[in-house]
């Protein structure tokens, strides 16, 4: 055994492990600090000496084994790595072209916006298309959907599934069997979920997409504890999401709320009166930031001309298809759809640009941006 390998087994490795701090403290106090000492002991001995449960001991030994004996990449894996899928389709050809292929595999993609802008609709659509075979733009994998602020929109999901089955009869028999929903009430539970429960789910259930809806809700509850106390777990969660995305080739999408902005230009040049929540500490942890906003334009359900709600002929608000922030669906007469904008705020491979879309019964669909400009011009001149 080389001196480097021997050092890996005999030195103190506790600070290098991503495990519960309580477990680290107990192991340090009992003198179980090296890989050879921990892995050389029986589970019963560790439970007795460290006074921990079987669950914590298994997490400890698994973390030590992964550190001391990292997985080796085979020649086959190296040869096929270049063939791996790089994007997950959004479910809309227009949005896929706009995003140069869809939502990227690896890294963390944030979608921010006001309540009712379409964030949850987008997350649900990704959760369905991720299960499609690669030939249809999917990744043929399961979905981990983490909810932090409201009940999971089951009714709306079932409606979208109905359209998916008609459009893709070759898709999975049951979409819901491959969506694993987990509710977390606060910041600590969210961080623990990402650090401990999510890795186990990804490895055991072939998960390829992770959606956090929303990342801000759990951390806003902790605002009274101070910015510094909040930034530490926020960074830990961000680093862990990046690690999982890189290690397993995941698509990670975090939905974020917005807050009022002081002045006309906010963080990263976003103009207007709102800015994504959690500030610079979170912005530095994401790879891509997309922002959704509602406009004053409406598209008739018959795909006719768009018109402004403020300048066009009066149409009762009861004739509009509406989706609330929780994703529940309310259909009255389905006369028109509100036009929204999807903006690339920053992305390593995309420039700053915008794309128009609507939220209809089927889900999120891109619409012609030039048509909006033409409609706006006609309205302003008329």
TrEMBL record:
Protein name, as recorded: RecA family profile 1 domain-containing protein
Localization in the cell: Nucleus
Record keywords, A-Z: ATP-binding, DNA damage, DNA repair, Nucleotide-binding, Nucleus
Gene Ontology MF terms: ATP binding; ATP-dependent DNA damage sensor activity; four-way junction DNA binding
Coiled coil: none
Organism name: Petrolisthes cinctipes
InterPro entries from the UniProt entry: P-loop_NTPase, Rad51_C, RecA_ATP-bd, XRCC3-like_C
PROSITE patterns in the cross-refs: RECA_2 (PS50162)
Pfam families recorded: Rad51 (PF08423)
Sequence ranges assigned to domain RecA family profile in this UniProt record: 84-258
UniProt GO cellular component terms: Rad51C-XRCC3 complex; replication fork
Matches recorded under PANTHER family: DNA REPAIR PROTEIN XRCC3 (PTHR46487)
